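User:
Can I borrow your eye for a moment on a structure tokenisation matter? Would you put together a sequence-and-structure record for a protein of your own picking? Please set it down just below, with no commentary around it:
AI:
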Amino acid sequence: MDLKMKDVVDLFDVPEKTILQWINEKKMPSYKIKNQYFFNKAEVNEWILRNDIAVSEKILDLTLTTRPVSLIDLIKRGDIHYGIEGATVRGVIDGVVNTIPLPKSIDKDTVLASLLQREEMMTTAVGKGIALPHPRNPIISDIDDESVSICFLKNPVDYRALDGEPVQALFIIISSNAKRHLEILSKISFLCKQEDFLKTLRDRPKKEVVLYYIERAEKEWRER
């Protein structure tokens, strides 16, 4: 496992008893081995978003890959799309796959099947009208093929989110390995905890506005 109890306590800046309470009452993903708790970074990230848990900027340091992730570059590669149609999760995913740019190394059917398989396991809706569709396992091997596509739906769709709020915006994550997926997810997770960013998404602004916000945020992260 990636994190020990002391790491998680430090990440959330709460007492250990609070973490234990979350494990018991909020189903925080954990693994108990020889009376010690361990945590998977990616699972903790997704749990944070689904349960609207406050977290510090330390989440951005969960993973340090040899080639740091540039969220703004990934979004420029995946682009920002508007008016995605679909009345169901499957319909929306189908619309997304037929809209976003994909690397030449994979075909649309592979991407569609991978995204739907992940949704069948558990919804990727994280609340506040946002979902983070992604394959369960990497479907590309080249870092240069990675992308994040932001897709605004034509109409909100019931995504079985825990907060009951229909999804209006998707972040489609295509990553090359588990570590880079975690780093991408960490950055998106932190962004989606910022109320001003959520308001920006709800307003469905022009592409330039979204890119400016994310580029400014990444610059602040690098300088902190």
